[in-house]
Design goal:
single chain; alpha+beta; five-stranded antiparallel beta sheet; 16% strand
Amino acid sequence: HASSEPGRKKCMALQPMTDINKVLKMQQETEDAVSRVFRKGSTSFGSNKDLGGPIKSLAIGSALPAGVLLQIASLLENVARVKSYGRYESKGAVNDIFGNRNQDFGADRRNSNPSNVQGRENDIDEEKTGEFGNDSLSEYFDLLEPLTSLSTEIRRCILAEDEIEDDASPALSKLRKELSHSGEKIHAALMSLINGSARTYLQDAVITMRNDRYCIPVKAEYKGMVKGMVHDQSATGSTLFIEPTAVVELNNHIRELELQEKQEIEKILQDLSTQASEFCPQLQSNMTIMSELDFIFARAALALEQNAIKPIFRNDRKIDLKKARHPLISKDQVVPISVNLGKDFDLLVVTGPNTGGKTVSLKTVGLLTLMGQAGLHIPAGDGSELSFFHDVYADIGDEQSIEQSLSTFSSHMVTIVEILKKADSHSLCLFDELGAGTDPTEGAALAIAVLDHLHQQGIRTMATTHYSELKVYALSTPGVENACCEFDVESLRPTYRLLIGIPGKSNAFAISKRLGLSDDIIDAAKEQISQENTRFEDMIADLEKSRVTIEKEQLEITAYKEEIETLKKQLESRQEKLEANKEAILREANEEARQILQEAKDMADETIRTFQEAGTGTDIRDLEKSRQKVREKIKDKNSKLSARVQTPQGNVKAGELRLGDAVKILSVGLKGTVSSLPDAKGNLFVQCGIMRSQANIRDIVLLQEDTFTIQGVGKASRSSGKKVAAGKSFSISPEINLLGMTVDEAVMELDKYMDDAYLAHLSSVRIVHGKGTGALRSAVQQYLRRNKHVDSFRQGAFGEGDAGVTIAEFKK
């Protein structure tokens, strides 16, 4: 992922480190580079080259070739682009990028545990600086010096590695103009010869160059007819290339001008080199920083490619990897594993069949530990923790050979002896197939002795094995834990899942039986195993079955919890809306009541004034008019109030309702379908979406809708959701009542109903058949099994009708 050669060299030289400060610094740099890539995309460091030699030449006053000066210009231009890339645009943008980073790589990877090397104080400092756009890379970008004036001057003077600009200096411009003028003179003189007296002597009427001199091709037999200097001849000798005497002086002049041009170019390159020599420290610094940044952003690119995260580092030798993935296995194929070591146990014994993923698990732990201590992010889940180890020792051999010889066992034992000599409490030890390659009894005893020796010293160790004795050792020894790689006996395939706390079963008999080995041979083999070992293997099998059952139940419980949480949120949301509507209605009603009272008061005051004035000789007809006016106002207000407070009443009679009828509950404004007939008090249940609400018959009205929203037939039209006119088959209820029918009548009615329901694109239907003798239920379910449109069906749950109802789901 590095884009420059110096950056690639730094990547190739990367080694795990034991210096905590250096590792944390590199991890922070990698994380900050990932954040910048998310915010502004990636950048290139391809123009960064190893210019150590040229910079030393500049320091002693040497002139650099045009090509090297162009490399310096390219480096400085790249430095300018990278420096611009490194600037944060605004405080808001900084907050956005840190927000995005947290969303993609976990909202908070900090660990408040005192054993966490990355303390909370460092995080607070990071937040303070991050607020203003500073991070661990800011200093690198700030130290870059583009030296724009130098790169501009180099580009002005040098067009290409072998081409200098005419205007690089006034002297060069003058020389090239003279060269051009002299060249024109020579061409004119030679053209006059070609088109004049020498025409008959020429092989071709062209002007050519020989030894940097302008010549003309003369036939050999006419050599004496053209005076001049012979510079070359053709391969056959029939043509001589002669420089005519008339242009010798002009050619000499051009040679002098070319020498002067060359000297002037050398002078220009010397001047440019002198200017560059003034910035040797800056050039060296730029080259070093660009290489380091290329190295950092290569680590970030790797982290993005692997969807890796910054691990939490501890200083108590504990490892807790969550959903860790082997970095060299394709993301589409790798199975994540979760493994911990050092918390409840310091020795993990992994068992299971071959090709089950034991070695991959072992390598994943080792590689991720080394990646973390090399400053690389690790392909694992958020919150994964690593510790600092001074050494990681591994004895991982190739177990794919048909038979293992003594030399193989000996070579493994040499490695193990070396590990036992060097390993201490700050080491991580990994053993693959410990004790294999020799007599099983002796090999198991040796393996137990080696592991117990490491366990007594508290050395973090992970080992894989086939030996049952090691499973017993792990079960009976405190601080030692079993693990296994899951294997599906039915499909004869490993799942590659690592299960901690469960010893692995070899499954040799089960696999052999699945592959066709006769039961007699398998039974004979079982007789060769001691009763104690058989009981132990059976116990492991029972544990495995219990684990699978518990996992399934946990998944079901999780699904139920999520469903309950969703329903709870929906109910809370509905309650909030109802409360909000209630408050708005009360506010509006209080306001209207205040206005009505105010109008009544004004009307009363006006009436009192009118009657008071009656004693002063007012005409009785005027009084009658006033009284009539008051009466009309009161009547108008009463009619408005009665219209406002009138409560809508349903007009549905009990005998008119059928199961599945579309109705609206007036008090809450919800639409649904009748799921139970009204009782003696008029109460019934209405299915409103996923909710089943109780209502009274006086609070509902029947809905007569000729059109409703359906989804078009076929995949292409399912997303349109347009309203289209529906015929009789589309005005279908989501429920059918078969109560009281015979089996034949019910099946005929159900067959027509299912066709209509499928055409109407209902996702599911509710079939009411009652409990009774069960004959009608059996006939309905037998029909559903044969119906090609039905995906699945089930008995009604509690609240849906129990055994008296069947719910059928259509295929999508």
